[in-house]
Amino acid sequence: MKSYTRPKEDQNGWNIFFSVFFVLVLIASLWTLSILRGGYPESISLFDVLIIALASFRITRLVVYDKITRFFREFFMHKKSVEKGGIGYVEMTPYTRGIRATLYQLVTCPWCVGMWSALIATFCYFATQWAWYVLLLLAIAGVSTLIQLSANAIGWTAEHRKITVEKEG
């Protein structure tokens, strides 16, 4: 009987590198906050936590899913010109090896981008007073995104039920 082993991913090294990089950025941001504010923040209101969370949600959606940032995600994809049936177009495929593959996985992973956006939003909240207004704007946009996603889900569910009833009847 033939034994199959899973090949070792070459991405493990890059994943470790970016994990360590994240921790170093976190430590640097805490150190910077201690210098800027003369110590570490001791408290934050629940409302502000909600603002930061919604802003992080919106930043994550912006980076991972929105069309406006597709160009950014495409930096980490291989572009290949293809012609089918006399029509030429560009085929985009993610890299499978190296740093570009890892970066593509990072910018298309909502959990990964969520960690980075939470770090950035929280740092900005504590580092500068004007950031609160930007975070508030992003939070309001995040709420409107949640409302739109909920409305879409309700519409899709209703449409699915309608089709199911029509098939049965």
Characterization of the model:
With 169 residues, this protein is mainly alpha-helical. The protein has one domain (11-67, 97-168). The protein has 6 helices and 2 strands. The protein has helices at residues 11-37, 46-64, 70-74, 98-107, 110-127, 131-168; strands spanning 77-84, 87-94. Strands 1-2 form a two-stranded antiparallel sheet. Strand 1 (77-84) and strand 2 (87-94) form a beta hairpin. It starts with 10 loop residues before the first helix and ends with a helix.
Helices and strands, with pairings:
Elements: H1 11-37, H2 46-64, H3 70-74, E1 77-84, E2 87-94, H4 98-107, H5 110-127, H6 131-168
Antiparallel strand pairs: 1-2
Keyword list:
169 residues; mainly alpha; two-stranded antiparallel sheet; 6 helices; 9% strand; disordered N terminus
Largest sheet: 2 strands, antiparallel
Low-confidence stretches: 3-7
The secondary structure category is mainly alpha
Give the overall shape: flat
H/E series, N to C?
A: HHHEEHHH
How much of the sequence lies in strands comes to 5-15%
Give the helix proportion (percent range): 55-70%
Cα-to-Cα separation, first versus last residue? 53 Å
Radius of gyration: 22 Å
The beta-strand count equals: 2
Mean pLDDT: 89
* Number of spatially distinct domains: 1
Tally of individual helices: 6
Strand order of the largest sheet: 1-2
